[in-house]
Amino acid sequence: MKTQDHLVELRINGETHRVEADVRTTLLDLLRERLQLTGTKKGCDHGLCGACTVAVDGERVVSCLTLAASIDGSDVLTIEGIADGDQLHPLQRSFMACDGFQCGFCTPGQISSARAMLTEHARGDLSTASFEGSRADVVDGCARLTTAEIRERMAGNICRCGAYANIVAAIEAVAQERTA
């Protein structure tokens, strides 16, 4: 082992991986280059576009800014692990039904972010838009997931094709299914 190498153990999509990696290796590079999990995309490589979004211990992170060594021992969920075998995740189905993608490059990050965002909303985490709605938008102590709320919470994910209306519609459809 080189002096800057670190043994990183991560549970990725339910499978444990032990990898020696330079302490400067990002989670994104570890996923794509070392583990061949290429669904997570490298967009800007500066944490600005959201294409590399994954969940670490249930929280969404931009993997291009997350050092793999800093999350040693964590659970990581990538786009490859969102489906249940051959059964697509409701967000994946909804993105297809609502045409929530054009070129598809940002789609893995959009879906990963949307999945985590729905969990954040369900546990009552607030966004800036939560304070801008009316009291009628509050259901069971939680701000209703309005279009404005979804747009605010997904603001860190950029779609260069401009498929935002369909992305929001796809997320709204899944959110409505969950509350129905």
TrEMBL record:
Alphabetical list of SUPFAM superfamilies matching this protein: 2Fe-2S ferredoxin-like, CO dehydrogenase ISP C-domain like
Tree of life domain: Bacteria
The protein's annotated pathway: Alkaloid degradation; nicotine degradation
Coiled coil: none
Pfam families: Fer2 (PF00111), Fer2_2 (PF01799)
Gene3D superfamilies: 3.10.20.30, [2Fe-2S]-binding domain
Limits of the 2Fe-2S ferredoxin-type domain: 6-82
Keyword field: 2Fe-2S, Iron, Iron-sulfur, Metal-binding, Oxidoreductase
PROSITE patterns given in the database record: 2FE2S_FER_1, 2FE2S_FER_2
GO molecular function: 2 iron, 2 sulfur cluster binding; metal ion binding; oxidoreductase activity, acting on the aldehyde or oxo group of donors
InterPro entries according to UniProt: 2Fe-2S-bd, 2Fe-2S-bd_dom_sf, 2Fe-2S_ferredoxin-like_sf, 2Fe-2S_ferredoxin-type, 2Fe2S_fd_BS, Aldehyde_Oxdr_Iron-Sulfur, Beta-grasp_dom_sf
Protein name per UniProt: Oxidoreductase
Organism annotation: Mycolicibacterium arabiense
Source taxonomy: Bacteria, Bacillati, Actinomycetota, Actinomycetes, Mycobacteriales
